[in-house]
Amino acid sequence: MSGVTSVDGPVGPPQPPAGAVPDAPAWPAGQVPPYPTPQPDRLTRFVVRLYERSPRWAVPLAALGCVAAGIGYALISDPTRSDPDAAPSCVLKLTTGLDCPGCGGTRALWYVVHGDIPAAARHHFVFVFALPFLAYLFVAWAGRQAFGWRLPELRFSGKVIGGFLAAWLAFSVLRNLPWAPFTTLYV
């Protein structure tokens, strides 16, 4: 290796090995090049400062507000009462005539809030099935964030999540088939 040497060893920057491209820096094995740390922009600094100053309960409260707004929308709009000749509000249903994977979810929520679980399941069975799990996951997360609660965690493997998504896909396809017994799933 060429370079200036002293009694203690080589002095100066490391030299590239023979046959290396002269413009490419050669760093010893295991050493990371000293790139400058990127500085956050003004918006990022503002958001981080806001996050650091906000109380622990602010994010769960905001999420609860969004859930309450969704329930409020379902209660005010009363999706169960619509004119039979009215155009559908769902773009997929309007363009294709097919029910989308979430079709009936707002009506199911309306029936759940009113305590009519069989009617809710009739409109969207998968939503009604998933609702207790989603509610528990939200309470566990919000309790941990806001109050430091340590509720038992629900841990779902990839196979369970994949099975749920496959069941949802099957439900979405079967509810659009025009033959009996699948026509009972049509909402």
What report would you give on this structure?
Helix 2 packs antiparallel against helix 6 (125-147) and helix 4 (105-113) runs antiparallel to helix 5. The model has no long low-confidence stretch (mean pLDDT 80). Strand 1 (4-6) and strand 2 form a beta hairpin. The longest helix is centred in the last third of the chain and has 23 residues, at 125-147. This protein is mainly alpha-helical and 187 residues long. It has a domain at 57-185. The chain starts with a strand and ends in a 13-residue tail after the last helix. It has helices at residues 42-53, 58-77, 91-96, 105-113, 117-123, 125-147, 158-174; strands at residues 4-6, 9-11. The chain is extended.
What key attributes describe this structure?
187 residues; mainly alpha; two-stranded antiparallel sheet; 7 helices; 50% helix; extended
What is shown here, in short?
The protein has helices at 42-53, 58-77, 91-96, 105-113, 117-123, 125-147, 158-174; strands at 4-6, 9-11. With 187 residues, it is mainly α.
What is the gyration radius calculated from CA atoms?
A: 29 Å
Number of helices, counting only DSSP H or I runs of 4 residues or more: 7
Kindly report the spatial arrangement of strands forming the biggest sheet: 1-2
Main sheet: strands, sense, barrel = 2 strands, antiparallel
Question: Low-confidence stretches at least 5 residues in length (pLDDT < 50)?
Answer: none
Helix content: 40-55%
- Give me the secondary-structure category: mainly alpha
| Oligomer description | single chain
The total of beta strands comes to 2
User: Average pLDDT across residues?
Assistant: 80
Order of helices and strands: EEHHHHHHH
